[in-house]
Each structure stands twice: as structure tokens, then as C-alpha cells.
């Protein structure tokens, strides 16, 4: 039973009901010290249950091991065969037409971090060993983890559906962490005196992927997407590293990081509106989606679209309502990946 599963929360609620019933039954039969102890137990159980539900909604701690600082959670799995010197045991393919999600430990020399990364491998990765595939980095929000994509947004099922329907080419999707500390929001930046997440995501993750996966290396085959904070990350990283990415899609991303990076760059080079105003705009394609009642995402996204000029291109998509929520991102997910795939190069002979 995982820490963020509905069953865990239901069990906690059952405990709250049980201790509350016990308090009512024993109130007249106990002295004041025992009553105080019973009330304390009820308060603690209610607080713990509320914390579990809050964690389930925000996905801050997806594993019990994350809560207690267990370095072995989540576990790293073997790398894939045939694409790097350290390749070993291949993952088992999924059912016909179904992609596979596997998780690896990605150590980055440039960024100085080592974090797990989940990877979606399309069914064709196993049936067409002669091909190298385009790549999309998919970045999660904050608070959150790559499991938000996997569990809440059901990315594997959505990608399988879009690929089978022909709306998307078979694509390898990388799901890295954007922070080494679940309580630290990096917004995928290089923080002064802190994590060098931008370097990790734009140098270490691509380098590892090219060494261990059967993917294309050319810029035309690389894209990046994200929701919420990950949406800002996708746009910001693509604009700062157009030599790495040819397209980016933002699901309810903002125009600025909303944190202090430590060098003031949240107002300049890590501020998308500032960058579009003060730097030459790159040859890049952006897809920007938001819900009309999500004020912060709406204002920032419209500002970015208004400031964009050739060779930068922008396509916008608006959901009438839903706020800043997984419900909105589930509606945007398929169209965003379809659009990205249309911008990227197709699978090619190895």
C-alpha cells in the first residue's frame, strides 16, 4: 500500500472514526489525564489523515521511502541493450501495441546530480530494432514527481492511443525529476548555491539517453513539454537551448518561475517575457495551452503569444474552464503530444 494511494487515505479515515468512537465511549469512564490523551490521539489521527490526503493531491511524497529519506526509493532498473557500453538486461516488452515504462538512475556529471528517470518506450521500440526514435522530455509540476505523468495523467495509455491512431509517431518520452529535493522548487533553473537542474535536464539527461537508448540525436527530433511548473520549464529551456530542442509544449505554464533563483535571473534570463523582449527569438515552435479560468497561466500565456515573432512560432489552445488542475491537463495531453510529434522528425533507420 503506497503512501499516496486512496486505500491508505481510507484506512486513515477508518482509524479517525475508530478513535473518535473510542473517545465518545470512554469519555465518562475515564479521568481527566486519560481524556486529554484520547483527545490528543483524535487530533493526531485527524492531522495525519489530512496530511495523507494533501500529499495524495500534491504528490509531494510518492513513496514511503521518500518520506523517511530512504536513498533506495525508488529503485533503479537496468539499462537497455545495444545502445551504450554499460547496456545489460533489456526490459520485457509490453503487450502488442502497448508501450513500456521503465525507470533508470541517471547520474549527471555536468549538473552534479543523480536522480531516477522514467522512460516511455513505444511498442515499436521492441518490434523495430532497425529504427532510432524521436524524443520528448516531459517535465512535471511542483509539487509533483514523474509519477504524476504516469499515474494521474496516464501518459502511457495516452501515448499508446495517439500512436495507434496515427496522430503521433512512435516516440521515446523521458520523464526526469526537476528537483533533487521534493520540498525544493527549482523551476528547472540553475539555482545559485543550489541544484543545477537546467544543466542536468539539457545536458546530462540528453547525454545519458543518447548513450543508452536507441534514439535520434539531431535537434529536429527533440522536443520538450510539461504541465504547470513543468510548462514554464519546457518553454524556458527550449528558448534558452534552441540547439537542443526544436519544439516545446506548455500545459498551463507561467511566463516566469515564481521563485528566487539567487542571481536575479527570475526577472531577466529566466523570465520568458523578458527574454522574448531583450533577446533574438530562435527558430522554435511553441504550443501553449491554458484554461480560461486559470488567471495566472492565462495572463502569462497570452503575454508570451503576444510577444512572439518570427522565426519563433506559437500555437495556442484554450480550455473553457477547469482551473489549474489535472482535469485540464488530461484534456490537453493528447493534443499537445500530437502537435509536438507533428513538429519533430520521424523515426529513422539506425
Automatic annotation (TrEMBL):
InterPro entries linked to this entry: AB_hydrolase_fold, Esterase-like, Mycobacterial_A85_antigen
Keywords: Membrane, Transmembrane, Transmembrane helix
Gene3D superfamilies found in the cross-reference section: alpha/beta hydrolase (3.40.50.1820)
Annotated transmembrane regions: 6-27, 34-52
Top-level taxonomic group: Bacteria
Protein name (record): Esterase
